[in-house]
Amino acid sequence: MKRLFSAALLALTPLSFFCHAAAADDNSAAGVADAVSERLSAYLTAFNDHDADAVAAFWAEDGVSTNEETGERVTGRDAIRDDLAAFFSDNPAAKLTGEVTEVRSVHPEVAIAEGVATLFLPETEPTPSAFTAVMAKTGGQWLLESSGERPLPTPESSATALEELSWLIGRWQDDTEGVAVDTTVRWSPNKAFLIRSYRAEYDDGGSFEGTQVIGWHPLDKSFRTWSFNSDGSFGEGVASRSGDEWLLKSTDVHSDGVVSTYTQVIRPVDEQTLEVQKIGRTEDGAPLPSTEPITVRRAPDAALTTEQEAQP
């Protein structure tokens, strides 16, 4: 799996800041970044279509993919295609997403791209890795000459890791008919965790509330969540970034013993608005339809003082 993942590494969604003006000179740094971004985006489509031949065509004939943690290498376009074909056969639901954090133009026909890719497989936790890829322009096309995959670096502390989610801090309200949902996210003492408190008031007079703790798992290098609700239900999840979205894969145990699973998709619309939807839902193993997207808006008094942020 490690070697196959390395061969499939560069299925990426480029960040919007690489979308330079269309009129940029092809030989300029902006033009090179545009071209590399377009190729990586097309690579993503081919990978998620599970087309091994199409993916292999993005590699140079002597391209090399290396897993820097294990030292395993896949050398040559044909070997990469064979590994991908076997991987797709064994993992028909595999998806790979990611983001480019930097493109450096070494030469008008050579570029280095860096970023993070995340592999998604059913029944397993997402697997993120950092990568560095060297691309060269050959015959008018940008091809992958080499890629190196490695584990993500370990943040110095939980607080450092959780800074990536600090945009959640504040007060939020759902736009949902028949129920008023109010959510507040704040830091725990020492910024060891993020604490999310939520309360729902239904038009029929009922109510529901709970607390979610968001933390960093230093061994798995993943964001974890633990939820506890007023009806006796509780849950645990793993959160990961997929391009501009966040995915929270959760398992909940209800007070009557029923087990439900789902993936919550959180899509930032702008600095003040989110869209939230649950997909891939099951209840005791039986599939359920996805929920409709819900718009969540930052409340006018969302800004919290430093003291309020740190309240337990």
From TrEMBL:
<feature type="domain" description="SnoaL-like">
    <location>
        <begin position="42"/>
        <end position="142"/>
    </location>
</feature>
<dbReference type="Pfam" id="PF12680">
    <property type="entry name" value="SnoaL_2"/>
</dbReference>
<feature type="region of interest" description="Disordered">
    <location>
        <begin position="280"/>
        <end position="312"/>
    </location>
</feature>
<dbReference type="InterPro" id="IPR037401">
    <property type="entry name" value="SnoaL-like"/>
</dbReference>
<dbReference type="InterPro" id="IPR032710">
    <property type="entry name" value="NTF2-like_dom_sf"/>
</dbReference>
<protein>
    <submittedName>
        <fullName>SnoaL-like domain protein</fullName>
    </submittedName>
</protein>
<dbReference type="InterPro" id="IPR011944">
    <property type="entry name" value="Steroid_delta5-4_isomerase"/>
</dbReference>
<keyword id="KW-0732">Signal</keyword>
<feature type="signal peptide">
    <location>
        <begin position="1"/>
        <end position="21"/>
    </location>
</feature>
